[in-house]
Amino acid sequence: MISSRNIGVVAALATLLAAAPLSAIFQGWTWLIESIIAVAVVAGVAALTRLARAPLWGQVLGMLAGLMFALTWLFPSGKELFAILPTPGTFSYFGDLLAGSMQDMRSYGVEVPDTDPLLFIAVLGVGGVAVLVDVLAVGLRRPALAGLPMLAIYSVPVAVYVDSVPAVPFVVGAAGYLWLLVTDNVDRVRRFGRRFTGDGRDVDVWEASPLASAGRRLAIVGVALAVVLPLAVPGMTGGLLDSLSRGPGNGTGNGSGSGGTSGRIDLFASLAGQLNQSQVTELVKVTTTEPNPFYLRYAVADELRSTGFQARNPSGRPANRDLPNPADRAGRGVQQTSHRATVEVTKNLSMALMPVYAEPVRTEDLNGNWLYDDSQQVIFSNRENSRGRKYSFDYIRSTFTPAALRAAPALPTDHPVRRQLTATPGAVPEVEELVKTLVQGKRTDYDRVLAIYQHFSADNGFSYRLSTESGSSGQDIVDFLTNKVGYCQQYAAAMAWLVRSAGIPARVAFGFTNGSNRDGDTFTLTNLNLHAWTEVYFDGAGWVPFDATPAYGVPGSTRSTWAPDNDAPEPTTPGGGVAGTPTGPEASAGPSGPDNADQDIDDGLSLGGTTPTEQPPVWPWWAAGLLALLALLAVPALRRTALRRRRGGQAASGALALASVDDGTEPGTRPVVVGVDANRARADAHAAWAELLDTLVDFRVPVDPTETPRATADRLVRDALDEDPAVIGSARLLGRAEERARYARDPLTGEQLLPALRALRGALAARADRRTRLLAAVLPPSVLLRWRTGLADSSGRMVALTGQARHHLLRWNPRRLLANRAAR
Amino acid sequence: MTQQTWDEVGGLLPHDEFRAASEAIVANIEQVIEGKTATVRLALAVLLAEGHLLIEDVPGVGKTKLAKALARSIDCTVRRIQFTPDLLPSDVTGVSVYNQETHDFEFRPGAVFANLVVGDEINRASPKTQSALLECMEERQVTVDGVTYQLQTPFMVIATQNPIEMEGTYPLPEAQRDRFTARIAMGYPDANAELAMLDGHGATDPLNELRAVSDAAIVRQLIATVRQVHVADAVKQYAIDLVTATRETPDLRLGASPRATLQLLRTARAVAALEGRDYVLPDDLQALAVPVLAHRIIPTADAQLARRTTDAIVSELVHRLPLPHDRQRNPYDTRPATGNGRAPYEPRRP
């Protein structure tokens, strides 16, 4: 009973956790409070019915009734009895709410406000899931199945957000589900009775079961497989990742996907991706009554963060109603003409945005799911996409005279547009300085903007090239302003940033140039015609486009009277005709890959970047690798030599001290003897002994850690040495010296240890076979053994440390704390 | 009675004199016990370590002879107790008897009031009588009727026992065994020694011709000298390791006591001094581990079933135990430096 009540509570909490994805839908948190109430009522009723030992169907009926009461209390219609007892009037009110929720779902985009119909359907859904989860997890003891209704909640934001769903709520929900599974399984394991460890000890209540480690291993392997397998399967990687990150494509798999969808995907990244495609794909066909239209636009990035320009989530009203008419801005040098255009989107362009000319006033063939954002002047949808659509719209083209723009008054600093759209993320000193120089002496906003615009001219060294790094963050801007090489993305972003720095609202617009494929009134636009430019806000004139990108780099670029071509005097003609068919045989023959980054759109003007880079010769690498390998192999031998020298040096320094004490004769000429100083003599004996042991290891004479020095010396004499009295004497001398150094009051003094050591080494080497001798010289086993021991030591310490840490952490194990509380 | 108390030992002997005195005793005993130099030296070492000796072997290998030879080589008071089943504790310790002349109780010292006490066939006495030795062996005093009498220095109990016979014997209790510093076995003599014995002992008992070559005063000086032998920290650590190993090995039900550690080190000092060293080596401890430790410990039932003697278990421990290094960790000791890394679990709450 206790355990099932426990699982019931966990089931309720897991349901609430699984409801976390709804936070992405609602603006407020009312839904959560009401869901908590509903779930609590359901769980409470379930516990009560189980206490009364009601059968399963009784529990279900009880929970449904509890949910009904909760809903009645939460959404009062005014007709119920005692506030919670539903009447027929209540049910009809619920019916109204349901119908209203359908209406609201259609009319609101995410995130939705807290309207009663939407709250009602959310609470009803969560409560229903709570009932299902409880029945599955507690009644039927099949908690794994309870994941299905939980997943149903998650499917709501998945359905609403077509492109990207926040990941955190899913993690929260998954954690709830796992919690439910774990609780059930712990309960199941406990039913076996007492748990034992391998060493026959009882397992405390709070301790993890010994079976848990197997489970952990399984889980880790499972997760690793789930992550690695898709990466390892090439088809899945190409399809999945590409379609998520790349723009619209030709549908053949390579580079397919949807281009700048609604604001969540980096517009710049998709733009760069598109422009770098080797394959030309027709995206849009547009027919307009305007003889020389400005660019077709579909998105705007007006939020400047430290990472660069980003798109805000658009918001607006249905595009099939009347759209705001800019006619009030006419006059005073602003000419407005009305035109009509028809856009046909091919099947290759799938995004939640619709390309239109600036300032549409009326649309046709677009349903209520398409919304118009007045401030961004884009048409978007949260549900549908543009694939294969055809629609018409009327729009008003505004043209401006420089005089009119000059006459436009500067925006007051507290104007919302100015406040919002001049924000820059922290001052970039280089930019500030440049802007200061440019706008110096300019009196009107237009003059300032023009000065900035004209800065991006070929005279100032700016040139067009597709192969630069994409990016529009502060650092990238500085790089661009220094290198002066880039394409539309950098030009548009840099100009917008500079204009903002000058205190004038600016943003980056995305769209298509007019392209190079014109048939009468019809323009056929491809992925290579994608473009970005700057829009600057002038009071009274609205958003005025400026295209700072060098015209020769952009097929179909258009200039205006207020923003004349910076590079017009240049002899280079705009490369529209040349770039019309950029898919030369060499471009399509080459595989799509990094080479394409060098592929300029306008082949005619490409900077000769196609010459193959010089391949550096390979052999130095091989030689360096070989040298490194040799150096690595020499390390043990060097270490051994260093050790031997140090040990010898100890004895030698002792001799030196002795020499200087005795008579001060030339220290080098005296025979090396152990110094008179007791400590030094001890150190010398230890050094000699350590060296002897290392030598023994090197020559594969066993070393026994249980042996005393005397016993070791005896064994050497007995087993490992020839019967040369000098060598035998050496061995015994070394043993005696070490023995006295370790255990006696006074160490042995006045003996020549180094010659003894040398004699012993010679004798050992003479007895060893050739292979042993070689190894002792090249890869001394003593050094390797030392390293291995050191490694084992440190790893042992590490294991001990982690063991302690684990032990300490277990003190705070929630299950243990709970168990303690229960014991009291 | 001139009582020499425990701490009043003699002055130090110079190295040469120590050597001469000890060699004289050994040589004297060897006139009687041929070919057993190591055993004889060990017996002397136990005397110099202020310990007690238990000689255990089959009948007829010279246990009693060794004990008597050692006693006779030193000119000091010697008492012999023949342990029989009807021996009473008061026979060992002494008894208060009523003196009709003085109309008072007066104390008649028992056999333990001597420098050397030879207890023959100690396991034939009842445990009651064996227990009479407990106090005097450890505390060197006898308490009779509430009066405590100090024993003399040197004081040494040399007991013999026969391990073969079962009937009519009472095995020594653990507490009693623990009081014996060392247990030595005589072992059969080798062929040459046996031949020499036949030649020498054929006509007369050489024991009768044995003269004392030393006396209690010299022995006290020897003891004082032995106490000065240097024991390095590493050696002490090794002794502790050794004793700890007997407590931790799964083969043993009862390991060695702290008294065993003390006596091990004392005996090692004596052995080192007899070898002419003024410092103890781990070699000494290794050589002494079996005689000093093996008789105190009790093997588990499994080890007994496997017919493993305590001697074998101790010598195996000695061969397994690495030497402690006083400088740094021994690089050839490949065991991990720390434990197995598992934190100890807390005991389960009731």
Explained architecture:
The complex is a heterodimer of chains A (824) and B (350). Chain A is 49% helix and 11% strand. With 824 residues, chain A is an alpha+beta fold. A six-stranded antiparallel beta sheet of chain A has the order 8-11-6-1-16-15. A four-stranded antiparallel beta sheet of chain A has the order 2-14-17-18. With 350 residues, chain B is an alpha/beta fold. Chain B has 15 helices and 13 strands. Chain B has helices at 15-30, 37-48, 63-73, 89-93, 127-130, 132-139, 174-179, 191-201, 206-209, 216-227, 233-248, 258-274, 282-293, 301-305, 310-320, and strands at 53-56, 74-75, 78-82, 94-99, 104-109, 116-120, 141-144, 147-150, 156-161, 182-184, 214-215, 252-254, 298-299. Chain B has a five-stranded parallel beta sheet. In chain B, helix 2 packs across helix 12 (258-274), helix 11 (233-248) runs parallel beside helix 13 and helix 12 packs across helix 13 (282-293). The radius of gyration of chain B is 22 Å and the shape is globular. The chains are: A alpha+beta (824), B alpha/beta (350). Chains A and B meet through helix 19, helix 21 and helix 24 of A and helix 13 and helix 15 of B.
